[in-house]
Amino acid sequence: MTGKISWFGLASGSSVLEERLILDDFNRDAVNQSLAILPMPETPSFLKAVRPRFDVHVFGQVVSTNATLWAMAGAQAGTVAIAHTQTAGKGQRGKQWESSLGGVYLSVMLEPDWPADRAAQLTLCSAWGIVSQFRWLGIPAQIKWPNDIVVAGQKLGGILSESKLERGTIARAVIGVGINVYNPVPVTGVTWHKLTKVKGKEAVASLSEVAAAVLLGIWRGVFYRNHTDGKSFTDAYQSLLTNLNMPVVLEGKTLRVVGVTEAGHLTLKSSSQVSRDVNQTVDQLVYIKPGELSLGYSHTDIE
């Protein structure tokens, strides 16, 4: 589907949203134009001269963009499904992603040919790439382990990766992303529109440009991971992690977040005294797989 958005599901008093969306033709041509001109970070230096191609498909409403892309005949690496709304968007741990009009909901197909044990890295490198791209555009985003994009502790977006294996390798994968732009959000969420209003200007205004920023970010993340070693990439990911040094209560004990492994496991550290008579502590590391622990949100309003 291309052309103007059909105005279904808009609440009364939504004139600002309508005005912004009417100005923004959220369709294939607009997304492709944004992909061609949107600035990208200049570092790492080997990424700055390469710009990917995508096969973009825009729909009015779908069940979920991940499901749409998996079912799309002929979909291959670089195929993209974007929807104005989703009726059953997917989140982590089986949760539904609220997908009302005014957000960006998209999925991109990859053919990484990675070992199966690197599946979690698809989420990590997508998060790193998207957050890096957003920061370049003036949005001070960070990563909340393992798959959320946050600003000042509030959720701007989320990522869901799904993989299909063949002979022990990831033959195909779909990276699904939802970004709050003009859509309603809970108190723990924030929108791109609110963030750019705070700054007194619009860093990137249209839904098409935000979608293009997400796609370029995913591509940068995967490309970077393919061209660097695991430690270098993990260090880059951790530099954008909002959870570092955060206290976490696990089985009645308080631990601290000290990093993430190359496999995507959260690393927690606890310290205990050897004995009452010996003034010496022993550090113990605990590794948590994605999905085993929810770090939660606190409401911090951005004025």
From TrEMBL:
Source organism, top-level taxon: Bacteria
Top EC class of this enzyme: ligase
EC number of the protein: 6.3.4.15
Keyword Ligase belongs to the record: yes
UniProt keywords, alphabetically: Ligase
Annotated Gene3D superfamilies: Bira Bifunctional Protein, Domain 2 (3.30.930.10)
Pfam families cross-referenced by the UniProt entry: BPL_LplA_LipB
Keyword match Ligase: yes
Domain BPL/LPL catalytic: 41-226
GO MF terms, alphabetically ordered: biotin--[biotin carboxyl-carrier protein] ligase activity
A GO CC term assigned to this protein in UniProt: cytoplasm
NCBIfam families the record matches: birA_ligase
Designated name of the protein: Biotin--[acetyl-CoA-carboxylase] ligase
Organism: Adonisia turfae CCMR0081
Lineage of source species: Bacteria, Bacillati, Cyanobacteriota, Adonisia, Adonisia turfae
